[in-house]
Amino acid sequence: MSSKVRGQRDGSPPPPAEPLPHPVVDNHCHLDIAAVSGLDVAEALAAARAAGVPRIVQIGCDLEGARWAVEAARAHEGLVAGVALHPNEAPRLAALGRLDDALAEIESLAALDVVRAVGETGLDHFRTGDEGRASQEESFRRHIDLAKRLDKTLVIHDREAHDDVLRVLDAESAPSRWVMHCFSGDAGFARECLDRGAHLSFAGTVTFKNADPLREALALAPRDRILVETDAPYLTPTPFRGRPNGSYLIPLTMRAMAQVRGDDLGELCAAVEANTFAAFGGPWAPLGVDPSSTEDGSTPEA
Fold this sequence. Notes:
The protein has helices at 31-36, 41-51, 63-75, 89-95, 99-110, 133-150, 162-172, 187-195, 212-220, 250-261, 265-279, and strands at 25-29, 55-60, 79-83, 115-124, 153-159, 178-180, 199-202, 226-228. An 8-stranded parallel β-sheet has the order 1-2-3-4-5-6-7-8. Helix 8 packs parallel to helix 9 (212-220). The protein is built from 11 helices and 8 strands. The protein is of the alpha/beta class. It has one domain: TIM Barrel (Alpha-Beta Barrel).
């Protein structure tokens, strides 16, 4: 996400990918970060829809990003929001004596109808050292509580903190719906998460040359627990790694996922769409479609 890799290599946006045979949802995107670099949000949404990605979960990772996510979801059909303080944001705010106030604002935003998720929250042992981990864990625990009280989906960021993420979840009791964002573990860790009720969300990293343990986790995951995301503008799938990512490139990741699993692409896309609705509390109207045009807001058949 967010504050984790702001050093994306320079490069022009990749060309459009071949559209998917069935729509899927990009369940984790950071349009606000890409917009800082000049992204036209309306054009990005149009490109996503053309690729077969008519719905996006826009994730805000600090107060400014959370506010942006809410306003974007209000302005654009097809977008819903997730709001939280990123694990690397929590220690910074705690050091300033502002963590409690920031969490109070996150709670206020999370209560809004356009917000489907509390996240991304969690633990990051890569960028936060020992001095910041207590406040990071406190923030994680409070986000878990918030997700349960508001009946929102919990979206977890886990970077080099597998054991501690599970420890905190076991201590606090996970909410009924929770997602491992940009799943980064192996098959053993996947089983641990699945046993606790997680949906596993796979990003462009599953296409990377050195990602065999991640592909093994994808292969063993039940079809009804798999999601897909971009984490755009980061984690662009092969062969465009290092260039700006976008929801319109989800087809590259989905085709790689289907190949790893030996699944029919259309069937896997249909499952991922249904899984995302289950994980995030039901369908919402797609981009560019009047929500009154279908009974449940789903994409009309061609």
